[in-house]
Amino acid sequence: MKRxxxxxxxxxxxxxGVANKLVNTVEAFNKSGYDANxxxxxxxxxxxxxxxxxxxxxxxxxxxxxxSLIFAPLLFFVICYLRMSGxxxxxxxxxxxxxxxxxxxxxxxxxxxxxxxxxxxxxxGSWVLWPANRVIQYSTESTWFSFGLLSKTKKMGNGIIxxxxxxxxxxxxxxxxxxxxxxxxxxxxxxxxRLIRAMHELEKIKPNMFNLTIVGDGExxxxxxxxxxxxxxxxxxxxxxxxxxxxxxxxxKAHIGVSSLGLHRKGLYEAADLKTREYAARGLMxxxxxxxxxxxxxxxxxxxxxxxxxxxxxxDALQGITLDTIxxxxxxxxxxxxxxxxxxxxxxxxxxxS
Length: 354
Prior knowledge:
Helix content: 25-40%
Number of helices: 13
Strand content: 15-25%
Oligomer: single chain
CATH class of the largest domain: Alpha Beta
Shape: globular
Radius of gyration: 21 Å
Structural class: alpha/beta
């Protein structure tokens, strides 16, 4: 039995979704016939150094390391050592580094640390990953950060443990309102303000036809609440953060899940986010902006709108939902099992590396 070790820095408190994904990744490797183990370290200098040392001592056949900006230059030497030891090394890059560079450069709070991060990121370029056997990306990378890596880069979508997501119990008969849900650590780039403005117009066209529930906290939450008050909308509610049972209760009433509608605000025009996959696993139709590698334009249950500031495409997409166009939860769930499951994704990670 081949052994897989997964190494990552993680802030369990502030990034529960990411933590859950990493745990599920290792679980999926075990279900797929590997002897897989996870090694998670705190998001700190000490944690980073411990992670690199632990990775260099791994006896696994396949070693997966989640990319971390600050330790990228040191990662180069660890990968070189592992390759000389006969190991197969996969580097998992959660966000295109060009996006991280833009976010760091344009951060609201300028600091010496951000400047240092930006310099390290730019100087690291693509060379830090050259020794790896494979680089996993979830969106297109810029030329600067992908030079010399194209032949070993695998672009793929995120995966989830579909069985862990209960199927939504909601039924829509065309008479009651369509229930829309968004779940996120709310940030400006989620673009929920576009949806709120679209719903303001929809109330004039189809009164009482749509309800929106926004779940989660975040830096943009107060701005969204203020916008809802300004537009005098009574069909939008905020729940704040919910526990597992509370979240399942909200999902059980939903018909449509909202992914990011503001990717362009952080320089992205495609994404393979976890939330979209969770919506699909629960059988919900999806409203989202931009491209997603796992969803072609022919997939009728993902309502794709442009990556811009317009609201008209959102209005058109929601207005177009009828009893004839709404897709059954069972069909969406089947798609998730066949295309989005973590077991499918982990096989892609190591394909042809054995």
